[in-house]
Design goal:
Elements lengths: L10 E4 L15 H6 L1 H7 L3 E4 L27 H13 L3 E7 L8 H6 L13 E2 L20 E4 L4 E4 L14 H16 L4 E5 L32 H11 L7 E6 L4 H8 L8 E4 L20 H13 L6 E4 L8 H4 L7 H12 L5 E5 L21 H12 L4 H11 L36 H6 L4 H14 L1 H5 L1 E5 L6 E8 L2 E8 L5 E2 L2 H5 L7 E6 L13 E2 L4 E6 L1
Helix pairs in contact: 10-14, 11-12
The structure holds alpha-D-glucopyranose.
Length: 561
């Protein structure tokens, strides 16, 4: 089937729990999302991805599903979902649902059955192993929360595997019944008119069946070399495509950590008939520690340039989602920009980066108004999500000082991205009339949608302009990528070219003024001329010439003639 123009689209990610609460219970919901679609459309996004809204015990806020074919009451009803779908379609927009294939909740009926006895018909839906020779877990893998990836089940005296939390048992994808169940779930939503799936943890479904010990001593995710892009993973996606996807005008975007462009080619080159794109996650992890993800490391621009160059030049037939931020990372403006004095400039500079590369951009809610990490996180009680809570528990049990652990959690926690969307001034920030399920960022009176709409120089106004430019400029979507000034420690510069169109992008990733040595940079010497298409400092007129210096966090896009 010939699906819609997904390469030219802009995806907006909604984390429904924190987007808009319509009934005052402090939890965002589907009617809330519907009531704010004007905002998303005004921005210029075409596709709305909603993270899981299925019934869930919320150990991992929806990524632990107990029923794949219903809507959790806290988010609304199936009628609300249908209304969301129809409202989007009336606007010419698309709906992307989150699909969690790797694991279910331990409260899913399959797992409730599976854990009852070794010969239960659902036993083989999950991955069970006898204890290792020392009576402990079958191997030394660690989960993404830290600690063993295996949980002891005293009733039936075996361990089950959980790559994420212990309430998220991994499904056994080698079992054809599991695959058929998942295909049926996809068909259920496709028949209801969903336009796209974002596939969660898409490349870890196929595990090495001998479950060898790992030599890695990473605190989280040790052993992943035995299940990332595993032996049968491509068979699973090709089968899914053949049996289900090929019959619908649907687009798939797989979340895949630790992949190379070569791997991405295997998942997404059209002739392979697997997925349409994978989400290029690497840039959003540039500051993540190697052995402990909570040890944020100092990153420099060379790291980011290297990641972008690799993905922009080595991928040939495949396609990626451009993913600089989402609900699993601290706020973009705080992580890669400057959330203080240069917030407006750095947030809009990052918009130019995210919207000037080859791929389908994914914008996370709140980034379009330059939301920042929140100052309210101070005590462990302020945190809601399991990775942070589990880390705190394990580290303090091992004798680490509370303040030390908190100092790591505060800048790195994914809860930073989950504070409520800031709509307007006042208590509840327009998100809720009740008590929000997670603390509001204290800067909501200063940074919010209402203020952004009233200010022609807001981050939001700039995002809109940049999205418009991207839509009018095929070279930004499809063009080639040529890096410039590669050794420059502060300026990120590149050319995007398509046929006769050549665009120059220059980004100052620093608070300091930075010189642009242009002729050397472009090879155009005396003959070249540059016309400004967009800049994030309001004083530059359209058509302005290229300056000799970039101001702090300045971002400019020129047409080169
Ligand atoms: C993905 C989701 C994340 C979730 C995890 C386990 O990485 O984005 O929020 O915790 O998968 O499902």
């Amino acid at each position: 089937m010939n699906p819609w123009n997904w390469k030219e689209s802009i995806v907006y990610e909604v984390y429904p729990r924190s987007f808009m609460d319509s009934d005052g219970d402090g939890i965002g919901d589907l009617p809330g999302v519907i009531s704010r679609l004007d905002h998303i459309q005004e921005l210029g996004a075409d596709v709305v991805w909603i993270t899981p809204v299925y019934p869930s015990p919320n150990a991992d806020y929806g990524y632990d599903i107990s029923d794949y074919c219903d809507i959790a009451p806290e988010y609304g009803t199936m009628e609300d979902w249908e209304e969301l779908r129809d409202s989007l379609h009336r606007r010419g927009m698309k709906l992307m649902m989150d699909l969690v294939l790797n694991h279910t909740s331990d409260e899913h009926p399959w797992f409730r059955e599976a854990r009852k006895s070794r010969d239960n018909p659902y036993r083989d839906y999950y991955i069970w192993r006898d204890p290792g020779t020392d009576g402990g877990p079958p191997n030394n893998w660690t989960s993404y929360l830290g600690g063993s990836a295996w949980e002891w089940e005293p009733e039936t005296k075996q361990y089950y595997l959980h790559i994420y939390g212990r309430k998220q048992p991994d499904l056994n994808w080698d079992n054809p019944k599991v695959r058929a169940e998942m295909h049926a779930i996809m068909e259920f939503w496709l028949e209801k008119g969903v336009d796209a799936f974002r596939i969660d943890a898409a490349n870890i479904l196929s595990k090495n069946p001998s479950f060898p010990d790992t030599g890695s001593d990473k605190k989280q995710g040790a052993g992943e070399e035995y299940y990332r892009n595993g032996e049968h993973i491509h068979d699973y996606y090709q089968e899914m495509h053949r049996k289900v996807l090929s019959r619908y005008p649907v687009i798939t975007a797989g979340e895949t950590a630790k992949v190379s462009p070569e791997d991405a080619e295997r998942y997404t080159a059209p002739g392979r008939r697997e997925m349409n794109m994978i989400l290029m996650i690497e840039a959003s992890k540039v500051a993540e520690g190697d052995d402990d993800l909570w040890d944020l490391k100092r990153w420099d621009l060379a790291d980011l340039k290297g990641i972008i160059k690799k993905w922009q030049t080595e991928l040939k037939e495949g396609w990626i989602g451009l993913y600089f931020s989402n609900h699993d990372h601290p706020r973009l403006a705080s992580y890669l920009g400057d959330a203080g004095q240069w917030r407006r400039e750095s947030a809009s500079m990052l918009a130019v980066l995210a919207l000037s590369l080859r791929g389908t951009p994914f914008i996370y809610q709140g980034d379009e108004i330059g939301m920042t990490n929140s100052g309210h996180f101070a005590r462990i009680e302020d945190f809601k999500e399991q990775q942070a809570l589990e880390y705190y528990r394990l580290e303090t049990e091992n004798g680490a000082a509370e303040e030390e652990v908190l100092a790591k959690l505060i800048p790195a926690s994914r809860d930073q991205a989950r504070t409520p969307m800031q709509w307007e001034d006042g208590e509840g920030a327009g998100f809720t009339t009740g008590i929000p399920w997670i603390g509001l960022n204290p800067n909501a009176d200063e940074i919010n949608v209402r203020r952004a709409l009233a200010d022609p120089n807001s981050v939001f106004a700039f995002y809109k302009k940049m999205i418009r430019l991207r839509k009018e400029t095929p070279a930004l979507v499809h063009g080639s990528y040529e890096p410039l000034l590669e050794p420059h420690p502060r300026v990120f510069a590149y050319i995007r070219a398509l046929e006769s169109e050549r665009l120059l992008v220059v980004l100052n990733f620093s608070k300091e003024e930075s010189e642009l040595d242009l002729p050397a940079m472009t090879g155009t010497e005396e003959t070249g001329s540059f016309t400004l298409l967009i800049g994030n400092y309001p004083d530059l007129a359209d058509g302005a010439e290229l300056p000799r210096y970039l101001r702090p966090y300045e971002a400019l896009v020129f047409r080169m003639i």
